């Protein structure tokens, strides 16, 4: 009986324990409420009583996302030339890392020996102008000649060569504008800015003639001059001329997509297409070459 009685005994056995329990029952909730109020009060508030409606805060919220992380560039500022390693990684690595189409691999001293024997000037000129399956400037016509030479030096020196870094010529100072007499009228002020109806007609005829000429571009000739080096042997994953299976998914994308990939360049899973095949062809010539290849591969 005594054991059964002890099992139902209360934890509070003395008046002091009862007072402590009652006090805790009131104090602990109060402390929790105070801490919660402080937490809420410290949260950054939007609206009245905060800085959210200041002109600076509103301007920051309305700032276009495209501006974040970008700095506007001055189009007239001198071009910042890339290092040889940067050019290699961006342009050359696609072929020279794997040795595509016989390209000498980075670090392959044996593959570079014969080329370095031609001299630095010849190796650089071949890289700038293109040779065999190597497109001019690696397929990026926007590269400066100095950037191409830096990439060649980086490639060669990583492969046992000892080529010298190219010297960068300082830009010539801009010519001062010709002085004019403030009192004399300029040519633009003395001549009318509007053209006569006959001049407008001639301009429209010239534009129509140019459009007609663009439509008559011989895609076959452009292909032979600019595209055959890669698309005949299928270099770097390029679809071969006449290969219906390889061209079918590309033709399915539509002419607009094929034009864009050919003009701007394209990096695919099996290889890469340099802009305009690394040539100096016009957009109309590239489109004509694409049409020729697509028609011949249907």
How would you explain this protein's 3D organization?
It holds the Pfam family Cytochrome_CBB3. The chain crosses the membrane at residues 18-41. Residues 171-202 have a biased composition (Low complexity). GO terms for molecular function: electron transfer activity; heme binding; iron ion binding. With 298 residues, this protein is mainly α. It has helices spanning 2-7, 15-42, 55-62, 84-96, 109-116, 120-129, 145-157, 187-190, 197-215, 219-231, 244-253, 255-264, 283-296, and strands at residues 266-267, 272-273. It folds into 3 domains: 11-71, no CATH class; 84-157, Cytochrome c-like domain (Cytochrome Bc1 Complex, Chain D, domain 2); 216-296, Cytochrome c-like domain (Cytochrome Bc1 Complex, Chain D, domain 2). Strand 1 (266-267) and strand 2 form a beta hairpin. Helix 4 packs across helix 7, helix 6 (120-129) packs across helix 7 (145-157) and helix 12 (255-264) crosses helix 13. The longest helix is centred in the first third of the chain and has 28 residues, at 15-42. It is elongated and about 105 Å long.
**What series of H and E elements makes up the topology?**
HHHHHHHHHHHHEEH
Termini separation (Å)?
101 Å
CATH fold title of the largest domain: Cytochrome Bc1 Complex, Chain D, domain 2
Q: Average pLDDT, to the nearest integer? A: 75
CATH H-level superfamily title of the largest domain:
Cytochrome c-like domain
CATH class of the largest domain: Mainly Alpha
- Major β-sheet annotation: 2 strands, antiparallel
For the secondary structure, the number of strands is 2
Total individual domains = 3
Shape-level CATH architecture of the largest domain: Orthogonal Bundle
Helix content: 40-55%
Beta-strand residue percentage: under 5%
Structure annotation, total helices: 13
Trace the largest sheet across and list its strands.
1-2
């Amino acid at each position: 009986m005594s054991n059964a009685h002890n099992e139902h005994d209360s934890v509070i056995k003395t008046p002091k324990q009862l007072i402590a329990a009652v006090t805790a029952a009131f104090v602990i909730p109060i402390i929790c409420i105070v801490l919660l109020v402080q937490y809420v009060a410290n949260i950054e508030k939007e609206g009245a009583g905060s800085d959210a409606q200041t002109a600076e805060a509103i301007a920051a919220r309305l700032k276009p996302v495209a501006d974040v992380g970008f700095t506007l560039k001055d189009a007239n500022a001198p071009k910042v030339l890339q290092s040889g390693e940067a050019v290699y990684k961006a342009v050359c690595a696609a072929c020279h890392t794997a040795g595509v189409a016989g390209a000498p691999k980075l670090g392959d001293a044996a593959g570079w020996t014969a080329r370095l024997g031609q001299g630095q000037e010849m190796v650089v000129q071949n890289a700038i102008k293109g040779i065999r399956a190597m497109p001019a400037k690696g397929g990026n016509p926007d590269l400066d000649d100095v950037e191409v030479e830096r990439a060649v030096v980086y490639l060669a020196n990583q492969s046992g060569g000892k080529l010298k870094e190219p010297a960068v010529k300082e830009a010539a100072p801009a010519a001062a504008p010709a002085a004019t007499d403030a009192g004399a009228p300029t040519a633009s002020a003395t001549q009318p800015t509007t053209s006569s109806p006959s001049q407008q007609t001639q301009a429209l005829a010239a534009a129509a003639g140019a459009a007609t000429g663009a439509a008559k571009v011989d895609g076959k000739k452009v292909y032979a001059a600019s595209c055959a080096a890669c698309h005949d042997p299928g270099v770097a994953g390029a679809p071969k001329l006449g290969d219906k299976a390889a061209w079918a998914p590309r033709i399915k994308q539509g002419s607009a997509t094929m034009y864009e990939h050919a003009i701007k360049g394209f990096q695919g899973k099996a290889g890469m297409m340099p802009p305009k095949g690394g040539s100096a062809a016009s957009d109309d010539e590239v489109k004509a070459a694409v049409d020729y290849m697509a028609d011949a591969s249907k």
